Amino acid sequence: MTKDQLVEFAWGLANSKHPFLWVIRPDLVIGEAAILPPEFTNETADRGMISGWCLQEKVLCHSSTGVMDTMCGGVRIISWPFFGDQQTNCWNACVHWGFGTEIDKNVKRDEVEKMLRELMESEKGKEMKERAMEWKKSAEDSIKPGGSSYMNLDKVIQEVLLQKPTTS
């Protein structure tokens, strides 16, 4: 991202007045270090934590390799996809699964604030949280004995590792 985009995200986050954890890699900003304005740090000191790294699995399951971990954790997301499978994951989270929203490529602080407030405070945000929790329950059910993921893994073990063809 550009330095301007970083600042826009920062002030949108600050203006939302919600508590946050923001993981910012040192190489996040194109061509320079990711440095936030001191005013932002002062404004958010009592409700924000900024880190260069975290165990995403621990944060999202308060189960990251991406949107699947947010789903398993029952977490709503705001997506800003750029490359790889991010566009597909964003589409699935926002359109197919219904627990995410996508921010415009031309990020502006007012839009960031509006989206955060919608996600955290609005009826639409509550509905997205309900869908996220439904997907979480579905994921949990699938790994229990008799669940679809449990049975598929057992089938792989039987057919590939133990070389015993199953009848199903």
From TrEMBL:
InterPro entries: UDP_glucos_trans (IPR002213). Pfam families: UDPGT (PF00201). CDD domains: GT1_Gtf-like. Keywords: Transferase. One of its GO terms (molecular function) is quercetin 7-O-glucosyltransferase activity. Belongs to the UDP-glycosyltransferase family. This is UDP-glycosyltransferases domain-containing protein. It comes from Aquilegia coerulea (Rocky mountain columbine).
